Write a sequence for this structure.
């Protein structure tokens, strides 16, 4: 996702009235009785918040040009390297143009539905933690909530009570919905719509929540969470209304660079994302700086044979390609250059539906691989493609660059682009990428890392969970461990997010200095703490209890899906 997009990395300290204004209504947005915020300003502010960028917009005739930039200190990737953002912008651009071109007639419902779905999917992984925040808030204030429910049902309600039953019913509905939340897109959409509707139905929401719940801290926290969770729906309504009322949106151009000098008489609007506290970022991936004199990876004698097919003798040009890393990324202009690179590899039907809607999901992984390596970039380590295409088995970023260079060579040398896309996807799905490398005359991929061949050849359910651990550790922003890591690497003993962060740091140090095979064996035999001590990895006494697992269960250390039933519920279900 490129780094994950934090739709709201922190709950804002204050929600201003205009931030809650809904463009799905026909009223006039008011900041005060005399000041009217501009629709286009609201459009840019909400787009900036979603994309974590700074925006300016130039409107000339039927064309709107949006210029995007990110601060060099931003935790997000550079715009031209952010594949998830590029895919989102390309689809959004096309849908806004369709809506604008039908502004004098009935707007196709399919276009509006696709735009809403696009925004929801883009925000999904980062809106989900807001829902977990609502769960924690209710759990932390369980006694207060129970007292409120008692009063709502008339027990102990005094004569002449003025209980706010309209708001009370919505609070109970919210509590019941988040309690049964299963992380599905359907339920996420329902929760966003509910949170969007509450401020529309209830005036003075913050004050009424504090009065209803009889505690200012609980009411204010819930108010901020509800307001933030409804943001995607408000953004969708603003995007639709802007496109419907703006002639200039009939053609939308998005440039991944700031604009300094605009043409005369062009309207200029600027926006920046909400300022949020900096978070620990994902691994810094300097994908556009080529090493001055990159040393080749360790060369090993070629194997005479291997399980999938005989190893062809390397040709001189093959040796050269293996010894050269992924080339430096070119300077990108408009963001659709990246999309135009991918589209020829897709079948005609897939070109129509948008890249982030490709099915099965393995097609999305292949598209992300293409988007990165064909532009000289590395795959972001948070993506599923980074895991599935074997980058997780590389020991260093330099080795990743060599592997990416091989994938780039295979793609660029293919005479049939659609066919090579299918071949790559099929090989990834069937664990035959090693055979694909051999068939394309690149057997020296085995020299890149001692683990790459076994990783790619092993069916997913037979792979060691140490690779899932490495994938999770490299996603520095993620503090919600998957079930298999709760089972195998002690995350089930964590009670707070800072404990997850601490244990991730311990494992990061272990992975940096200990071969993955030894960590796998220690996991299998319940000796993770002992291994850390033997190798000089510092572990505080209070954290040693976290380096335990389900040993002696026979199924641990493999990604087999066994014994995970007790870890199926949301990780932070406990009171924090």
């Amino acid at each position: 996702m490129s780094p994950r997009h934090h739709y709201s990395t922190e709950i804002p300290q204050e929600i201003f009235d205009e931030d809650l204004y809904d463009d799905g209504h026909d009223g006039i947005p008011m900041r005060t009785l005399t000041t009217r915020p501009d629709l286009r300003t609201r459009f840019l502010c909400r787009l900036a918040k979603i994309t974590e960028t700074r925006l300016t917009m130039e409107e000339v005739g039927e064309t709107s040009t949006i210029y995007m930039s990110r601060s060099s200190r931003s935790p997000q990737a550079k715009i031209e390297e952010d594949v998830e953002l590029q895919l989102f912008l390309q689809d959004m651009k096309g849908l806004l143009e369709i809506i604008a071109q039908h502004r004098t007639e009935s707007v196709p419902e399919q276009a509006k539905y696709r735009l809403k779905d696009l925004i929801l999917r883009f925000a999904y992984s980062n809106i989900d933690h807001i829902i977990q925040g609502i769960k924690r808030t209710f759990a932390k204030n369980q006694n207060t909530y129970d007292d409120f429910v008692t009063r709502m049902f008339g027990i102990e309600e005094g004569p002449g009570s003025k209980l706010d039953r309209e708001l009370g019913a919505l609070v109970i509905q919210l509590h019941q919905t988040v309690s049964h939340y299963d992380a599905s897109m359907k339920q996420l959409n329902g929760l966003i719509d509910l949170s969007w509707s509450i401020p529309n139905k209830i005036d003075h929401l913050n004050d009424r929540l504090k009065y209803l719940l009889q505690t200012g801290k609980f009411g204010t926290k819930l108010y901020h969470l509800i307001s933030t969770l409804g943001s995607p729906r408000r953004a969708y309504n603003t995007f639709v209304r802007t496109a419907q009322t703006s002639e200039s949106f009939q053609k939308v151009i998005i440039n991944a660079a700031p604009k300094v000098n605009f043409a005369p008489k062009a309207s200029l609007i600027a926006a920046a994302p909400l300022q949020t506290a900096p978070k620990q970022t994902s691994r810094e991936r300097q994908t556009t700086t080529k090493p001055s004199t990159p040393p080749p990876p360790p060369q090993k004698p070629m194997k005479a044979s291997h399980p999938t097919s005989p190893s062809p003798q390397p040709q001189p040009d093959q040796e050269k390609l293996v010894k050269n890393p992924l080339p430096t990324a070119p300077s990108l202009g408009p963001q659709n250059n990246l999309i135009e690179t991918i589209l020829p590899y897709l079948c005609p039907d897939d070109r129509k539906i948008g890249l982030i809607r490709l099915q099965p999901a393995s097609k999305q992984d292949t598209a992300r691989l293409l988007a990165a390596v064909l532009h000289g970039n590395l795959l972001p380590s948070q993506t599923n493609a980074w895991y599935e295409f074997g980058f997780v088995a590389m020991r260093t970023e330099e080795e990743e660059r060599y592997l990416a260079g091989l994938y780039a060579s295979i793609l660029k040398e293919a005479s049939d682009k659609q066919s090579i896309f299918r071949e790559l996807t099929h090989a990834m799905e069937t664990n035959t990428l090693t055979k694909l490398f051999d068939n394309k005359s690149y057997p020296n991929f085995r020299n890149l890392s001692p683990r790459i061949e076994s990783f790619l050849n092993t069916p997913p359910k037979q792979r060691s969970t140490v690779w899932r651990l490495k994938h999770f550790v490299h996603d520095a922003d993620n503090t919600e461990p998957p079930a298999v890591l709760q089972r195998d690497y002690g995350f089930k003993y964590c009670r707070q997010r800072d404990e997850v962060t601490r244990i991730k740091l311990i494992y990061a140090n272990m992975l940096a200095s200990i071969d993955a095979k030894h960590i796998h064996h220690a996991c299998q035999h319940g000796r993770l703490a002992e291994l850390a001590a033997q190798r000089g990895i510092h572990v505080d006494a209070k954290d040693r209890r976290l380096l335990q697992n389900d040993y002696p269960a026979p199924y641990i250390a493999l990604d087999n899906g066994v014994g995970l039933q007790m870890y199926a519920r949301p990780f932070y279900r406990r009171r924090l």
Observations:
- The first strand starts at residue 54 and ends at 60.
